[in-house]
Amino acid sequence: MLATPNMPLQELVMQQQHLLRIIGQIQDDAYWQDDARNSYEHLLHSLMELTGSRYGFIRTVDKALEAPEQTLINISPEKGKEFFSCLQTVVQNKEPLINVLPDSMANSILALPVKFGNEVLSVIGLAGRAGGYNQDTITLLEPLLKLVGRIQQEEKQRKKQAELVRKADKQEEDWNSLMLTLDDIVMEMNEQKIFTNVWCRQDDLLFMPREIFLGKTILEALGEHAKEFDDLADIVLQTGIRQQKIYRDIRPEMEKWYSIKISLFENSVPGPKRLLILIRDVSNFESQKINLKRSQAELKRSNQLLNMCQDMSRMGGWEFNPHTGQIYWTAEIYKLREIPHTYPLSIQADAEFYHPADQAVYEAARDNLLYNYQPYDLELRHISAKGKQTWVRTVGQAILNTDGMVTHLRGIIMDITDKKDAELRLVKAMDDAQKAAQARSEFLSVMSHEIRTPLNAIIGFSGILNNGPTDVQPEIIQNLQFSARHLLGLINDILDFTKMEAGKIELEHIAFNPVDLIQGIARNQQPTAKSKGLKLYTSFDDTIPENVIGDPVRLGQIINNLLDNAIKFTSQGYVSIEVQQETCSHPDSCTLSFTIKDTGIGISEEMQERIFESFVQENSAISRLHGGTGLGLAITRKLVELFNSRIILESKKDEGTTFRFDITFRVPPAKSAIQQKNKTPRHQLLKDKKILIIEDNAINIRILELQLQATGALISSVSNGKIALEKMKEELFDGVILDLHMPEMNGYETIPHIKAYQPDAFIIVLTADIMPEVSKRLSALGVNNLLPKPYAAEDLMQMLQRNIV
Known about the structure:
Residues 690-804 form the Response regulatory domain. The protein is an alpha+beta fold.
């Protein structure tokens, strides 16, 4: 600084010396650090003395607001009000300011910025110098301002550092206090996975004492248990992603579970990575979770069992909340009603799934439950959305809380179709059983009448013959034969029905002439028709084969039954049988159509199907009037079905009846045809043939002897198989007729010996045992000639004819 007219050299030197003393004082460290306020006050007095100012102040600056913040020292009247107008200008412009007040130079103000670098740290204000202030004063004070700026900056940094240290100490103290209040174990680990700090509320929660952890790696501290935790730490260090795991206490005797979380510290400045490990005792939570899982598993299993039970029992449940209107159905109800689970539920629309005739009953019960809380239990017809009809049991009841208030309505819907069908079947079965019992009772009554009637004739006429020859002997014999045939027919009907019920009847396949068979039956029925004044017609197609292969006995039984019924239920007019050959597509077979027609009483439409049932006649009055067992048509239909055909009935009440059926027969080659003209006459049938009768009943032996007497046979008889074998050792026979049930040696035991002694002799079995297994046992022994007792002599002659030929 140079001397100027305004400042003589001597004054300048004095000011600079004074300035140097001030600077020297400022540079004394203790001067500022011991008592900064005193130092600022001394500085301000020195400046006022140096510049001749009467007033002065020093004020710090808020860096963020760039405005005066705190007055460090103020020496002026009225708290330095005269300085305030220039402070903001100096802070903003960062340049000294001389403000000359208008009244006098003595009131001028000098405002000096104290800067460090380009930052204004404080403002020094001086005022009241005689003659005012000029640039020379500013120039003089520049070195001092720089020194004060540096000192203030250092003081500012020192305070800031002290504050940071204080805050860090406080933060660490708070952190440690916080860590100690937690239930968790908190650990800190550096980048080398070495434990640097451990916090724990209770040391006994730690696996080992805290001091053992510090300074050790995971591997060193945990040994064989360390790997899974070490792997978690590696993942966090590599990815920065927090890792978490639930684990059981590594001490086997401890039933505890812990949650470990490992994450990176968020460093405010770049530096080595640090890991924060938080371990929480979650034993209660884990126990609850295990119990929850167990409960959920039990609930799931219970629901599965419930669903299975509901599915097996076809029963679903429902619940309705009357307060919220919410409805819940189990899966089985959706299944029963064949609707998706998205179907909109409504308590009112529920009635739509019931049969129209049952809806009113359901709605009344439902409303009574809704408004009066009265339970219901109903069995109703149910119709699904797809039209499937079932029977259901629907139950509803109110659920009350402890206060007796209704909280929900609940119930079930159960498919009881099988039960209901069983009940209906049971009712029908009981009804059928009652009808069957009544039918059987009526049948027994009819059978008693039907059997006693011919027996009465047989016994009566036998008694008359026993009295001696009479003029009406031929008539008596004819009536005896008719009664015997009628009685045999009754017995055969019963036996055939029994065998049909057991499915034991099989058709024979032999050659016969169908026209001769029908004509023979018609001849036998002619006397009965004639006695009632009826015409009996037969009609045959000229194209019918002379012989067919089938079962003439069963076909004859069908025709006989139908003709017998037609004659029985016709009081005037005629009965006819017509046989026609249908168009045949195969030369080895033909189909014959049989039609039996009458002009009798007819059959009502409602009885036309039932008339083929066992023991059924249209009414008991007809049964009493016309007789019969009620088995004829039942047997007839089953026999027709055995021929793989079906019988057709056409009838109107009081207008007559027509029965029609078709049967397909094989046609034998011409050389196999039976030429009736070559039949051997009965008196020559067994001429000179030796026949052995084995029978224990003397009457039956006598009947056979008389029946065979006219055939020319040479007859011998014995009473059992044992005697027969002795006789066969001595004499050869052409044929044997034997009974099955005999003393000492029965027929089954005798047959193998007969075949061994005389294998060329034919065997005919006559037996009253008609059980189905009899024919099977005889077939196994190689015997196919079986004639059940009682039998017609003609049947015996036909069987002998076949065996002799």
